[in-house]
């Protein structure tokens, strides 16, 4: 059962002012103002009066932007895609407009209004306070027009039991509708989306979203890695291991892209094989051209391979008098790169 005050004509402007202009009301729109009004008060044509009052409000007209004027199209975010967050962004916009209604002349006091405006927003038409506490919240205007208690026989224990029963029904109803909404949003979000899919042991790049002080994001590398996928938790979440020593990461698929470069071990083996083949060809040509026959020899306890004739004279202490240069097998790849880069 809900009780409403029938407001006399002389007190209606004060009621509308408290419902709309007060910091605990927050200069909200027509729908939210009307919802607060209709749950507490009534008079002939009060819906029309409330609409006219909010429409004629000079503060709202000066602060709130028109969607038609700014050509803003309202979009809802898809699952796991915060670039267009349909829940967070409308609240931020509403809170900014509410603050602007009270601190337009003094921006240093905006934080003082946050508790009142948070209360105004939470007690609006989309309020969840009824589900949490089992009753309508008390507004400042309720102090001027207190709600009478007509059930004198209801004890505190009986009231608590009654509220508990109603809350259980509310929880079940909210859970049912919430799951229905989630399924609906997911259906439309996934309708035209074909997310990328990766497999275990596949190598990927990770989108670098970290911001460091003093570092320009525009001039920084957009992707870090490469990483190797070690666990695929589901179609959206993957666990990665970096190629270089570092921590494992749990990331969303939207931050990944395929890495086409070979793994480090494959890349090293390929380079080593190419280098050895090129080195053998170079040695064969040098030996044929110079007439040099240089078999494998032992220098002390290390086995070395002669790879260059007198045509190459590096500055080193390991050179022989005949101009032949000896290197260790372990440094074959490194030294061969120096050979081919020298004139």
From TrEMBL:
<dbReference type="InterPro" id="IPR012337">
    <property type="entry name" value="RNaseH-like_sf"/>
</dbReference>
<dbReference type="Pfam" id="PF17921">
    <property type="entry name" value="Integrase_H2C2"/>
</dbReference>
<dbReference type="InterPro" id="IPR050951">
    <property type="entry name" value="Retrovirus_Pol_polyprotein"/>
</dbReference>
<feature type="compositionally biased region" description="Polar residues">
    <location>
        <begin position="295"/>
        <end position="306"/>
    </location>
</feature>
<dbReference type="GO" id="GO:0003676">
    <property type="term" value="F:nucleic acid binding"/>
</dbReference>
<dbReference type="InterPro" id="IPR054465">
    <property type="entry name" value="Integrase_p58-like_C"/>
</dbReference>
<dbReference type="Pfam" id="PF22938">
    <property type="entry name" value="Integrase_p58_C"/>
</dbReference>
<feature type="domain" description="Integrase p58-like C-terminal">
    <location>
        <begin position="225"/>
        <end position="258"/>
    </location>
</feature>
<dbReference type="InterPro" id="IPR036397">
    <property type="entry name" value="RNaseH_sf"/>
</dbReference>
<feature type="domain" description="Integrase zinc-binding">
    <location>
        <begin position="7"/>
        <end position="65"/>
    </location>
</feature>
<protein>
    <recommendedName>
        <fullName>Integrase catalytic domain-containing protein</fullName>
    </recommendedName>
</protein>
<feature type="region of interest" description="Disordered">
    <location>
        <begin position="282"/>
        <end position="306"/>
    </location>
</feature>
<dbReference type="InterPro" id="IPR041588">
    <property type="entry name" value="Integrase_H2C2"/>
</dbReference>
